[in-house]
Structure formats: structure tokens, C-alpha cells
Amino acid sequence: MSNKNTNFPWKFTGNDKGVQKVNKIFEQYNELIKMLKIEGAHLNHIRPEYLMSFSDLNMYLANLPAEKSKFYMPSLLKINSGLFNYLSMESWITLLYQIFKIYVLARVTPKNFKQHLSTIPEIPAHYLAYSNFSSNSENILFYWCEQAVS
Predict the structure, then answer these.
(1) Distance CA 17, CA 87 (A)
(2) N or C: fewer beta carbons within 10 Å in the chain?
(3) Are residues 24 and 94 in the same domain?
């Protein structure tokens, strides 16, 4: 994890009920997304609403103040469970992938690769060349997979 000191402005004790609980859950997801963005995650398209359960989302939207509800598309206010399930799964998968990318994949470097897998040949230069498709860490893992299969 990062060495940055993060202080979360919320605390969820589990004793909260109803709307108060749902608002705290929303704030937790919102702060998580903000923190991960600061760490370098690409989560601009993820909304905290899609990380909530369907019943929590409906309760949250039903109790939105008028000044906040004007920022929501009318289609979100009347979302069906099928569409919500799709958006929720996509959001959770993206969130988990970005967490993996920031905290795990970032630790894969040519130096670490050589230290831990000394039996695999040297990484060719074209795997470490600039790519707009994948990072160096991903390219190192692609090379490792190719070597493991061959």
C-alpha cells in the first residue's frame, strides 16, 4: 500500500439504521473511489451508487434532497434491477481490477522479476518498450506466461 496518510471522514459502526446507514455507505464508497483516484486508479466512470445494493440505492435515491437530485439523470432515478445488476457488476469488476493494478501489479518490475524467477531468460527489450495498450508490469507478466506455456 501507499505510504500516504489517509484520514477517512466517516465512520461506520453498524448501529445506524435506514437512511442514515445508506448515506454512510454512499459516503464510504465515494471516499474509497476518491482515495483510489489519488493513488492513480482510473475510476472516473464509476459512481458510488453502483457499488451499493439495489435496495440501498432505491432508499438513497428516494431520500435525496431536491438540490442533489437535480444532478441525477431521470433514468437513474427509475433504474430497473436488471440494468442495475449489470452496472453494479461492471463497477465492482473495474474497482477490483484497479485495486489490483495499483497495489499488486505496480510491484512487478524487471528487477523483481529477475530476483524471483532467475530460471526464466532475460526479458527482451520489446516487452519493456512503450505501449499504449499495456504497462511494463503487464508486459512482464505476458512474457512470464509465454515462457511458462512454452
Answers:
(1) 26
(2) C
(3) yes
